[in-house]
Amino acid sequence: MRYFAVLKALPFIIAAPLTERAEAVGSGKYIVILKPTASVPTQGTDIGLPGGSLLANVNKEHIYDVGNFKGYSATLSDAQIAALRLDSNVAYIESDQQVHTTGIRHMQASAQSGHVITQASAPSWGLGRLSHREKGNTDYLYHSSAGQGTCSYTVDTGVDASHPQFEGRAEQVKNFASNATTDDYGHGTHVAGIIGSLSHGVAKKTKLYGVKVLDKYGSGILSNVIAGVAFAVNHSRTADCPNGAVINMSLGSPRSQAVNDAAAAAYDAGVFIAVSAGNSGSNTENYSPSSEPKAFTVGATNTTDDITEYSNYGCLLDCFAPGHDINSTWPGNQYQILSGTSMASPHVVGLAAYFLGLFGKMDPDTLGNIIKAFSTKDVIGAILPNTSTPNFFSFNGIGENGTGDI
Length: 406
What we know:
By secondary structure, the protein is an alpha/beta fold. It has two domains: about 30-95, Alpha-Beta Plaits, CATH 3.30.70; about 100-400, CATH 3.40.50.200. Helix content is about 20%, strand content about 25%. It has eight helices and 22 strands. The strands form six sheets. A seven-stranded parallel beta sheet has the order 10-11-9-13-15-17-18, sandwiched between helices. The chain has a four-stranded antiparallel beta sheet with strand order 2-3-1-4, covered by helices on one side. It has a four-stranded antiparallel beta sheet with strand order 12-5-14-16. Helix 5 runs parallel beside helix 6. The radius of gyration is 21 Å and the shape is globular.
Protein backbone atom coordinates (compact mmCIF):
# COMPACT_ATOMS: atom_id res chain seq x y z
CA MET A 1 0.00 0.00 0.00
CA ARG A 2 2.99 2.32 -0.28
CA TYR A 3 1.61 3.85 -3.49
CA PHE A 4 -1.53 5.04 -1.75
CA ALA A 5 0.34 6.44 1.24
CA VAL A 6 2.58 8.58 -0.93
CA LEU A 7 -0.23 9.68 -3.25
CA LYS A 8 -2.41 10.72 -0.34
CA ALA A 9 0.43 12.81 1.09
CA LEU A 10 0.77 14.87 -2.10
CA PRO A 11 -1.95 17.82 -2.46
CA PHE A 12 22.73 17.05 -34.24
CA ILE A 13 25.59 15.06 -35.11
CA ILE A 14 25.71 12.30 -32.58
CA ALA A 15 29.21 10.93 -32.16
CA ALA A 16 30.38 12.81 -29.08
CA PRO A 17 28.67 14.77 -26.29
CA LEU A 18 26.74 17.43 -28.13
CA THR A 19 27.56 21.09 -27.50
CA GLU A 20 24.49 23.15 -28.29
CA ARG A 21 25.44 26.42 -29.96
CA ALA A 22 23.56 29.17 -31.72
CA GLU A 23 23.21 28.30 -35.40
CA ALA A 24 21.16 30.79 -37.38
CA VAL A 25 18.89 29.14 -39.91
CA GLY A 26 19.28 32.03 -42.34
CA SER A 27 16.99 33.00 -45.23
CA GLY A 28 15.13 35.41 -42.97
CA LYS A 29 13.14 32.80 -41.04
CA TYR A 30 11.48 34.07 -37.85
CA ILE A 31 9.10 33.00 -35.10
CA VAL A 32 6.44 35.58 -34.24
CA ILE A 33 4.71 35.10 -30.88
CA LEU A 34 1.50 37.01 -30.21
CA LYS A 35 0.00 38.26 -26.98
CA PRO A 36 -2.67 36.02 -25.41
CA THR A 37 -5.43 38.50 -26.29
CA ALA A 38 -4.56 38.49 -30.01
CA SER A 39 -6.59 36.56 -32.55
CA VAL A 40 -5.03 33.46 -34.05
CA PRO A 41 -3.70 34.41 -37.49
CA THR A 42 -4.60 32.63 -40.70
CA GLN A 43 -2.58 32.24 -43.85
CA GLY A 44 -2.12 35.53 -45.72
CA THR A 45 -4.18 37.65 -43.31
CA ASP A 46 -2.58 40.47 -41.41
CA ILE A 47 -5.43 42.91 -41.86
CA GLY A 48 -5.09 46.04 -39.80
CA LEU A 49 -1.44 45.56 -38.91
CA PRO A 50 0.91 48.49 -39.21
CA GLY A 51 2.89 48.26 -42.42
CA GLY A 52 -0.05 47.86 -44.79
CA SER A 53 0.85 45.92 -47.91
CA LEU A 54 4.21 44.90 -46.42
CA LEU A 55 2.40 42.25 -44.38
CA ALA A 56 -0.54 41.48 -46.64
CA ASN A 57 1.04 38.42 -48.21
CA VAL A 58 3.17 36.96 -45.45
CA ASN A 59 3.38 33.20 -45.98
CA LYS A 60 3.00 31.65 -42.54
CA GLU A 61 4.72 28.26 -42.50
CA HIS A 62 3.33 27.15 -39.13
CA ILE A 63 0.49 28.63 -37.08
CA TYR A 64 0.62 28.01 -33.33
CA ASP A 65 -2.55 27.89 -31.24
CA VAL A 66 -2.36 26.17 -27.84
CA GLY A 67 -4.31 28.01 -25.17
CA ASN A 68 -2.68 31.40 -24.68
CA PHE A 69 0.31 30.42 -26.82
CA LYS A 70 -0.34 31.92 -30.26
CA GLY A 71 1.84 32.85 -33.17
CA TYR A 72 3.41 31.71 -36.40
CA SER A 73 6.67 31.15 -38.25
CA ALA A 74 7.47 32.84 -41.55
CA THR A 75 10.20 34.14 -43.82
CA LEU A 76 10.27 37.91 -43.29
CA SER A 77 12.21 40.84 -44.68
CA ASP A 78 13.80 43.49 -42.49
CA ALA A 79 11.01 45.87 -43.46
CA GLN A 80 8.36 43.34 -42.46
CA ILE A 81 10.09 42.75 -39.13
CA ALA A 82 10.12 46.49 -38.49
CA ALA A 83 6.41 46.68 -39.28
CA LEU A 84 5.58 43.78 -36.97
CA ARG A 85 7.47 45.40 -34.11
CA LEU A 86 4.96 48.25 -34.29
CA ASP A 87 2.00 45.92 -33.84
CA SER A 88 0.58 45.93 -30.31
CA ASN A 89 -0.56 42.30 -30.73
CA VAL A 90 3.01 41.01 -31.11
CA ALA A 91 4.67 39.85 -27.88
CA TYR A 92 8.12 39.16 -29.37
CA ILE A 93 9.95 37.96 -32.47
CA GLU A 94 12.78 35.40 -32.54
CA SER A 95 15.13 34.35 -35.30
CA ASP A 96 14.61 30.70 -36.15
CA GLN A 97 17.66 28.56 -35.32
CA GLN A 98 18.99 25.03 -35.33
CA VAL A 99 18.01 22.42 -32.76
CA HIS A 100 19.59 18.98 -32.29
CA THR A 101 19.02 15.69 -30.56
CA THR A 102 20.78 15.22 -27.21
CA GLY A 103 22.00 11.66 -27.65
CA ILE A 104 25.38 10.12 -28.34
CA ARG A 105 25.67 7.21 -30.72
CA HIS A 106 27.81 4.19 -29.92
CA MET A 107 28.83 2.38 -33.07
CA GLN A 108 27.73 -1.05 -31.87
CA ALA A 109 25.03 -3.01 -32.66
CA SER A 110 -7.13 6.16 -9.85
CA ALA A 111 -5.07 3.15 -8.73
CA GLN A 112 -5.91 -0.07 -10.46
CA SER A 113 -6.18 -3.63 -9.30
CA GLY A 114 -3.38 -5.74 -10.70
CA HIS A 115 -0.15 -7.40 -9.79
CA VAL A 116 3.58 -6.93 -9.97
CA ILE A 117 5.41 -8.37 -12.96
CA THR A 118 9.10 -9.25 -12.92
CA GLN A 119 11.00 -8.93 -16.19
CA ALA A 120 14.09 -10.98 -15.45
CA SER A 121 17.42 -9.74 -16.84
CA ALA A 122 15.95 -6.75 -18.67
CA PRO A 123 17.96 -5.86 -21.82
CA SER A 124 18.56 -2.32 -20.57
CA TRP A 125 20.16 -1.67 -17.17
CA GLY A 126 17.99 1.43 -16.83
CA LEU A 127 14.86 -0.63 -16.22
CA GLY A 128 16.35 -2.54 -13.30
CA ARG A 129 17.70 0.68 -11.82
CA LEU A 130 14.36 2.44 -12.17
CA SER A 131 12.57 -0.23 -10.11
CA HIS A 132 15.04 -0.59 -7.22
CA ARG A 133 16.42 1.76 -4.60
CA GLU A 134 19.93 0.35 -5.02
CA LYS A 135 22.09 0.08 -8.12
CA GLY A 136 23.14 -3.22 -9.66
CA ASN A 137 19.76 -4.92 -10.15
CA THR A 138 19.00 -6.32 -13.60
CA ASP A 139 15.37 -7.38 -13.09
CA TYR A 140 12.63 -4.88 -13.93
CA LEU A 141 9.67 -4.93 -11.52
CA TYR A 142 6.51 -3.11 -12.55
CA HIS A 143 2.76 -3.02 -12.00
CA SER A 144 0.69 -4.83 -14.61
CA SER A 145 -1.19 -1.64 -15.57
CA ALA A 146 2.05 -0.60 -17.33
CA GLY A 147 0.82 2.74 -18.66
CA GLN A 148 -2.45 1.41 -20.03
CA GLY A 149 -4.85 4.09 -21.26
CA THR A 150 -2.12 6.66 -21.90
CA CYS A 151 -0.59 8.27 -24.98
CA SER A 152 3.13 9.09 -25.20
CA TYR A 153 4.36 11.55 -27.84
CA THR A 154 7.95 11.77 -29.04
CA VAL A 155 8.79 15.14 -30.61
CA ASP A 156 11.92 13.88 -32.32
CA THR A 157 13.15 12.24 -35.55
CA GLY A 158 10.04 10.09 -35.93
CA VAL A 159 9.22 6.51 -34.98
CA ASP A 160 9.59 3.28 -36.94
CA ALA A 161 6.13 2.03 -36.02
CA SER A 162 6.73 -1.30 -37.76
CA HIS A 163 9.26 -2.44 -35.16
CA PRO A 164 7.86 -5.63 -33.55
CA GLN A 165 8.77 -4.32 -30.09
CA PHE A 166 5.94 -1.77 -30.43
CA GLU A 167 3.29 -4.51 -30.89
CA GLY A 168 1.15 -2.27 -33.10
CA ARG A 169 0.90 0.42 -30.38
CA ALA A 170 3.09 2.93 -32.26
CA GLU A 171 2.14 5.35 -35.02
CA GLN A 172 4.02 8.01 -36.94
CA VAL A 173 1.35 10.73 -36.95
CA LYS A 174 2.95 13.94 -38.23
CA ASN A 175 6.03 15.14 -40.09
CA PHE A 176 7.33 18.70 -39.95
CA ALA A 177 10.94 18.02 -40.92
CA SER A 178 11.41 16.44 -44.35
CA ASN A 179 9.86 14.31 -47.05
CA ALA A 180 10.51 11.14 -45.06
CA THR A 181 7.41 9.61 -43.53
CA THR A 182 9.20 7.57 -40.87
CA ASP A 183 12.32 7.72 -38.71
CA ASP A 184 15.25 8.02 -41.14
CA TYR A 185 17.78 8.68 -38.38
CA GLY A 186 16.96 6.33 -35.49
CA HIS A 187 17.00 8.59 -32.47
CA GLY A 188 13.20 8.88 -32.15
CA THR A 189 12.70 5.13 -32.43
CA HIS A 190 15.29 4.61 -29.69
CA VAL A 191 13.54 7.15 -27.45
CA ALA A 192 10.11 5.60 -28.08
CA GLY A 193 11.53 2.18 -27.21
CA ILE A 194 12.68 3.45 -23.81
CA ILE A 195 9.25 4.92 -23.15
CA GLY A 196 7.10 1.96 -24.07
CA SER A 197 8.50 -0.95 -26.10
CA LEU A 198 7.75 -4.51 -25.04
CA SER A 199 11.21 -5.50 -23.75
CA HIS A 200 13.09 -2.21 -23.42
CA GLY A 201 10.27 0.10 -22.29
CA VAL A 202 9.15 1.52 -18.96
CA ALA A 203 5.41 1.76 -19.75
CA LYS A 204 4.78 -1.33 -21.85
CA LYS A 205 1.12 -0.64 -22.64
CA THR A 206 1.21 3.06 -23.54
CA LYS A 207 0.35 4.16 -27.06
CA LEU A 208 3.31 5.72 -28.85
CA TYR A 209 2.94 8.60 -31.29
CA GLY A 210 5.85 9.91 -33.35
CA VAL A 211 5.94 13.61 -34.27
CA LYS A 212 8.86 14.17 -36.63
CA VAL A 213 10.55 17.57 -36.24
CA LEU A 214 14.19 16.55 -36.88
CA ASP A 215 15.75 15.28 -40.10
CA LYS A 216 17.95 12.34 -41.08
CA TYR A 217 20.93 14.06 -39.43
CA GLY A 218 19.17 14.59 -36.08
CA SER A 219 18.86 18.33 -36.73
CA GLY A 220 16.00 20.73 -37.29
CA ILE A 221 14.73 24.22 -36.69
CA LEU A 222 12.89 25.70 -33.74
CA SER A 223 9.78 26.65 -35.69
CA ASN A 224 9.21 22.99 -36.56
CA VAL A 225 9.80 21.92 -32.96
CA ILE A 226 7.20 24.40 -31.73
CA ALA A 227 4.76 23.15 -34.37
CA GLY A 228 5.41 19.59 -33.21
CA VAL A 229 4.64 20.39 -29.57
CA ALA A 230 1.45 22.22 -30.54
CA PHE A 231 0.39 19.30 -32.73
CA ALA A 232 0.98 16.76 -29.95
CA VAL A 233 -1.12 18.74 -27.47
CA ASN A 234 -3.99 19.19 -29.91
CA HIS A 235 -3.82 15.57 -31.12
CA SER A 236 -4.01 14.28 -27.54
CA ARG A 237 -7.37 16.01 -27.08
CA THR A 238 -9.07 13.61 -29.48
CA ALA A 239 -6.83 10.54 -29.13
CA ASP A 240 -7.87 7.57 -27.00
CA CYS A 241 -5.95 8.53 -23.86
CA PRO A 242 -8.41 8.19 -20.95
CA ASN A 243 -5.61 8.26 -18.38
CA GLY A 244 -3.76 11.18 -19.93
CA ALA A 245 -0.97 12.10 -22.34
CA VAL A 246 2.74 12.83 -21.97
CA ILE A 247 5.32 14.40 -24.29
CA ASN A 248 9.06 13.74 -24.58
CA MET A 249 11.53 16.27 -26.02
CA SER A 250 15.01 14.77 -26.27
CA LEU A 251 16.49 17.74 -28.08
CA GLY A 252 18.06 21.08 -27.31
CA SER A 253 19.13 24.49 -28.57
CA PRO A 254 20.51 27.69 -27.08
CA ARG A 255 17.86 29.33 -24.91
CA SER A 256 14.73 30.25 -26.85
CA GLN A 257 11.78 31.98 -25.23
CA ALA A 258 9.47 30.69 -27.96
CA VAL A 259 10.41 27.04 -27.40
CA ASN A 260 10.11 27.50 -23.63
CA ASP A 261 6.70 29.09 -24.05
CA ALA A 262 5.57 26.19 -26.25
CA ALA A 263 6.60 23.69 -23.56
CA ALA A 264 4.83 25.79 -20.92
CA ALA A 265 1.70 25.87 -23.09
CA ALA A 266 1.65 22.06 -23.16
CA TYR A 267 1.87 22.01 -19.37
CA ASP A 268 -0.91 24.61 -19.09
CA ALA A 269 -3.04 22.47 -21.41
CA GLY A 270 -2.74 19.56 -18.97
CA VAL A 271 -0.04 17.54 -20.75
CA PHE A 272 3.06 16.47 -18.80
CA ILE A 273 6.20 17.27 -20.76
CA ALA A 274 9.68 15.96 -19.92
CA VAL A 275 12.81 17.25 -21.64
CA SER A 276 16.47 16.31 -21.77
CA ALA A 277 18.79 18.53 -19.74
CA GLY A 278 21.36 18.70 -22.54
CA ASN A 279 24.86 17.34 -23.05
CA SER A 280 27.09 20.38 -22.60
CA GLY A 281 28.17 19.65 -19.03
CA SER A 282 26.91 23.09 -18.03
CA ASN A 283 23.91 24.81 -16.50
CA THR A 284 20.50 24.05 -18.00
CA GLU A 285 19.53 27.72 -17.69
CA ASN A 286 21.33 28.46 -20.95
CA TYR A 287 19.40 25.99 -23.12
CA SER A 288 15.89 25.24 -24.31
CA PRO A 289 13.56 23.64 -23.58
CA SER A 290 15.50 22.55 -20.46
CA SER A 291 15.40 26.07 -18.97
CA GLU A 292 11.59 26.16 -18.92
CA PRO A 293 10.41 25.71 -15.29
CA LYS A 294 7.13 24.04 -16.32
CA ALA A 295 8.99 21.38 -18.30
CA PHE A 296 10.25 18.41 -16.27
CA THR A 297 13.99 18.52 -16.96
CA VAL A 298 15.97 15.27 -16.69
CA GLY A 299 19.71 14.74 -16.26
CA ALA A 300 21.65 11.55 -17.02
CA THR A 301 23.46 9.07 -14.77
CA ASN A 302 25.63 6.03 -15.45
CA THR A 303 25.66 2.51 -13.97
CA THR A 304 27.61 3.68 -10.91
CA ASP A 305 24.96 6.29 -10.03
CA ASP A 306 27.22 9.20 -10.96
CA ILE A 307 26.05 12.11 -13.06
CA THR A 308 27.58 11.67 -16.50
CA GLU A 309 30.36 14.05 -17.48
CA TYR A 310 28.23 15.48 -20.29
CA SER A 311 24.92 15.95 -18.45
CA ASN A 312 23.79 19.49 -17.78
CA TYR A 313 22.87 20.43 -14.22
CA GLY A 314 21.45 23.25 -12.11
CA CYS A 315 18.45 24.33 -10.09
CA LEU A 316 16.11 24.05 -13.10
CA LEU A 317 16.78 20.32 -13.34
CA ASP A 318 14.01 18.20 -11.76
CA CYS A 319 15.50 14.72 -11.47
CA PHE A 320 17.96 12.21 -12.91
CA ALA A 321 17.44 8.94 -14.75
CA PRO A 322 19.62 6.33 -16.49
CA GLY A 323 21.17 7.83 -19.61
CA HIS A 324 24.49 6.14 -20.37
CA ASP A 325 24.85 3.03 -22.55
CA ILE A 326 21.10 2.49 -22.91
CA ASN A 327 19.96 -0.35 -25.17
CA SER A 328 16.73 0.26 -27.08
CA THR A 329 14.91 -0.13 -30.37
CA TRP A 330 16.29 1.00 -33.73
CA PRO A 331 14.72 1.23 -37.20
CA GLY A 332 14.64 -1.91 -39.32
CA ASN A 333 13.88 -4.29 -36.44
CA GLN A 334 17.28 -3.51 -34.96
CA TYR A 335 18.62 -2.42 -31.55
CA GLN A 336 21.23 0.15 -30.65
CA ILE A 337 23.10 1.43 -27.60
CA LEU A 338 23.02 5.21 -27.14
CA SER A 339 24.05 7.60 -24.39
CA GLY A 340 22.93 11.08 -23.48
CA THR A 341 20.31 13.02 -21.62
CA SER A 342 18.17 12.08 -24.65
CA MET A 343 18.00 8.61 -23.12
CA ALA A 344 17.32 9.83 -19.57
CA SER A 345 14.25 11.91 -20.42
CA PRO A 346 12.21 9.04 -21.96
CA HIS A 347 12.79 6.96 -18.82
CA VAL A 348 10.89 9.69 -16.96
CA VAL A 349 8.22 10.08 -19.65
CA GLY A 350 7.70 6.32 -19.46
CA LEU A 351 7.51 6.62 -15.69
CA ALA A 352 4.96 9.43 -16.02
CA ALA A 353 2.80 7.29 -18.33
CA TYR A 354 3.25 4.39 -15.89
CA PHE A 355 1.96 6.46 -12.95
CA LEU A 356 -0.97 7.76 -15.04
CA GLY A 357 -1.87 4.18 -15.92
CA LEU A 358 -1.68 3.20 -12.26
CA PHE A 359 -3.38 6.17 -10.58
CA GLY A 360 -5.48 7.66 -13.37
CA LYS A 361 -5.47 11.04 -15.07
CA MET A 362 -4.01 13.97 -13.16
CA ASP A 363 -2.58 17.41 -13.88
CA PRO A 364 1.12 17.79 -14.78
CA ASP A 365 2.03 19.47 -11.50
CA THR A 366 0.63 16.61 -9.40
CA LEU A 367 2.29 14.06 -11.66
CA GLY A 368 5.65 15.81 -11.38
CA ASN A 369 5.32 15.93 -7.61
CA ILE A 370 4.58 12.19 -7.50
CA ILE A 371 7.71 11.44 -9.52
CA LYS A 372 9.78 13.55 -7.13
CA ALA A 373 8.12 12.06 -4.04
CA PHE A 374 8.89 8.50 -5.14
CA SER A 375 12.44 9.35 -6.23
CA THR A 376 15.44 8.02 -4.33
CA LYS A 377 17.19 10.91 -2.61
CA ASP A 378 20.90 11.67 -2.30
CA VAL A 379 22.36 8.65 -4.12
CA ILE A 380 23.82 10.42 -7.15
CA GLY A 381 27.54 11.11 -7.06
CA ALA A 382 29.77 13.61 -8.87
CA ILE A 383 27.22 16.44 -8.75
CA LEU A 384 29.10 19.72 -8.77
CA PRO A 385 28.81 21.59 -5.45
CA ASN A 386 27.15 24.99 -5.23
CA THR A 387 25.00 24.37 -8.31
CA SER A 388 21.68 23.79 -6.47
CA THR A 389 21.21 20.59 -8.50
CA PRO A 390 18.54 18.35 -6.91
CA ASN A 391 19.79 14.88 -5.98
CA PHE A 392 16.66 12.97 -7.03
CA PHE A 393 16.90 9.63 -8.84
CA SER A 394 13.75 8.40 -10.60
CA PHE A 395 12.06 5.35 -9.07
CA ASN A 396 8.77 3.55 -9.78
CA GLY A 397 8.11 2.60 -6.16
CA ILE A 398 7.93 -1.17 -6.65
CA GLY A 399 11.36 -2.68 -6.07
CA GLU A 400 11.31 -2.13 -2.33
CA ASN A 401 7.96 -3.93 -2.05
CA GLY A 402 9.27 -7.20 -3.44
CA THR A 403 6.86 -9.01 -5.74
CA GLY A 404 3.77 -8.87 -3.57
CA ASP A 405 0.54 -7.20 -4.60
CA ILE A 406 0.28 -3.45 -4.23
